[in-house]
Amino acid sequence: MSRSHLAGARAGVRARLPTSPVDSDDARWLGWPLLVGLAVVAIYLATNDYPAYGAGLYVETADAIRANSYALPATIPHYGPEGVPFAYPPLVFYALAVLRDLGAGAFATALYLPPLVTVAALVPTYLLGRDLVGDRRAGTAAALLVVLNPQVLEWHISAGGLVRAPAFVFALCGSYAALRIFRDGAREWVFPGLFSVALVAHTHPTYTIFTVATYLVFWAGYDRSPGGLVRGAVVGFGALALGAPWLATVVSHHGIGVFSGAAGTHGGLFGVVYRLREWGPTGALVPMAAAVGLLGTRHRVVGAWTAAVWLLFAQPRFTYAVGAIAMVAAAVELAERGYADGAVALVDGALGRAAAGTPDRPDGGMVRPDPAAARVVVAGLVVLSLVGLGGLGYGFAGSDETTPEFVDDADTEAMAWAAEETDPDATFVVFGDAAEWFPVYTDRTILVSPWGAEWRGPDTYEAHLNAFVNGSECRNRSCAAAAMATVDADPEYVYLPRGPYTVRGDYERANGTLEASFAESPRYERAFENDGVVVFRRTSA
Predict the structure, then answer these.
(1) Which of 362, 360, 343, 215 is nearest to 290 (CA)?
(2) pTM for this prediction
(3) CA-CA distances (angstroms) from residue 273 to 27, 459, 504?
(4) Helix axes 339-351, 285-294, angle to 10 degrees
(5) Which regions of the chain are under pLDDT 50?
């Protein structure tokens, strides 16, 4: 190929790739939430000796990949008597397997990595807020509302964020690509969109559904053309083609039913029904009020996006993340129209009577308000940052349920004993949340395990979840035995917490009656104890 042809080919590639969506004018407005995010990370690390919540199953999955020479294993051992079918999207587990081979510890990785990845999610959050509302300060405000929201942080900076935080980043990047594809008609964003959707599809199923829903809402709200539908199909089917090898391997091991079974757990689709049944109409009322009010304004697509997410997912973290942009858009709408006129317009929008409003800015142009208004906005962002950081610091250091630690030093000592002093095929029932970490640190099997049981179907998942929760809250041996019997668990060892512990993140305190009940039984004897744990060994069948 001649030099001129090569130069022409390179120019063609550059023309098909998007330019950076961030320029020098974005530096301070994007840097602000990133610095606040790093401050949140510092507070979390200063107040947590161990990672919040659990990620033992994730680490065990990575170790199963390592043990299988980096081929997809059929099952993950030790979580339940039959193990867990390996049907998870595999991307993060392969990355974690590499880190483990490089010597990364399970607790250290789960403590440090998720919060740092969560901070990275602020970049696409800022871009979405900036371009949807048309103001860089709106991007800053949206990113601050996300990084200071305990509901969002709880699921992403905690240990489970090993998988969820990367999925959050990929999903938001894919959503931003969708905005550029459908609203701006920017074909050069098709490939980044395809790449982002493929990454999220290889990371977490729920975040994949979130991304697909975003593409559908943005196409219907901004485009509605056959050409846009084709571009969206290229993204979707391209990502599906990239995921075909993994899907084919899983189906060959477990059949297609492994996916349909898991889909019926954790609230499933249209999780609003599950959420209202379980908790009542409490969560995300402010972002939903903003979303409904926006339906009659030029930000109607933001309102529809928030409403769709609220209807689809039981987990409120999705509504709060998208709703942050809706709240900022509603505030801007009120400010631009004047408080009184804006309030009327938002109420009319909620009732479906408002005028069509001005169309969304197709060029993503930035609003340039007067300097006095700018100073007020900056002051508001400063107050939001300081108050939010103060509230999180108080919550993280206190006994709230945002960042509960599943294990402590007493648990790690007890797990080390189990790994060294029990047979490799010994079976345990572990009451309390330390159970989630137990297999990865002991290489022993727990017989009551809701973690990963969703891949065996809703019935299995619900049975193990109920057995775990009910047994962990028991105050005598007969209650614990009845809970274990519901899943036919007859372990060689029973692991009981002493003093404070958590069950599904909720704080409990052992009062000693369950331990005394086991101690009085001739069927069990003490095998290990320290200040925080006692383990009983079964002495007879």
Answers:
(1) 343
(2) 0.87
(3) 42, 19, 22
(4) 90
(5) 1-15, 277-281, 340, 347, 350-364
